[in-house]
Amino acid sequence: MDILAFHLRGKMAHFRKYYSNSSALSYWVPPRTTLIGILAGLLGMERDSYYERFSLEECEIGLALCSPLKKTIQKMNLLMIKSSNDLNGSAEHHSQTATEFVIPWDLVNGYLDYKIWIHHQNKAIQAGLLKLLSPEHESFYYSKGIALALGSAQNLGWIETDKIYQGEPLQDVEEKRHIASIVAAKDLTQLDVITDGNYSYLKEDLPLEFDRERKLTAKGKGDFIINANGTGIWGSAAKLVQLENGEVIAWMH
């Protein structure tokens, strides 16, 4: 299968957790729902019109951390905006909201680096993404009116294309190997806990897909194992895919 790889990068991100209320907590990684929103925006699709076209059955997406990251909390002074006159900050009802941001471990010299792999069953959509994110474009992309952000609008980011790979499913679910991407907890058959400082495992409950009413489907969320140090996962799992460059990845499902 043809698998398009690209990097989603930036200085800071906020991927708000769907159950967060008074404190705006963030996921460590962009959920699949965020990623398909970015892809649909690049293709010029209208908001809330693309959920079925990027369903779990139609679109395979893998995600990896390629740099160590951490979190910080900042107080955001939010305004209640009912008209353009409220934008100057003079109105009442300011809200001090604790907001969690994901940042690089080295904020001055580093940046967030998420690697994305995608394979779409719809050949027209796959071809459109290949054209927009062709490796020939190097560190830029052609968008159709979207401003790329890592979650909330103030966290601007950019895309750097990688390569188009050929990938094949792996059959041996018991063999231990290095897995470059995050892995669904339900697929893991073994996870090696290594204490040499290169691995910092955590589990996150991520949304995966919506229905037409923007509600999570029956398969719309799942637990994933993530290495916050950006060095992948060492263990064994089902439903893995090996790329032609030797990398092993797992789809988000």
Description:
There is one protein chain. This protein has 253 residues and is mainly beta. The chain is globular and about 60 Å long. The chain has helices spanning 32-42, 123-132, and strands at residues 2-10, 15-16, 26-27, 59-65, 69-78, 95-104, 112-120, 157-169, 177-179, 183-184, 188-191, 201-207, 221-227, 233-237, 240-243, 248-250. The chain has a single domain (2-74, 95-250), classed as Alpha-Beta Plaits.
End-to-end separation in angstroms reads 18 Å
Summed up, the helix count is 2
Instruction: Identify the overall geometry.
Output: globular
Identify low-pLDDT runs.
none
Q: The CATH topology, please?
A: Alpha-Beta Plaits
Sheet-strand content, in percent, reads 35-45%
**Regarding CATH, which class?**
Alpha Beta
How many individual domains?
Answer: 1
The helicity comes to under 10%
How many distinct beta strands? Answer: 16
Strand order of the largest sheet: 4-7-1-8-15-16
Major sheet summary line = 6 strands, antiparallel
Topology order in helix (H) and strand (E) letters: EEEHEEEEHEEEEEEEEE
Which structural category fits the helices and strands?
mainly beta
| CATH architecture group name | 2-Layer Sandwich
Rg (CA only): 19 Å
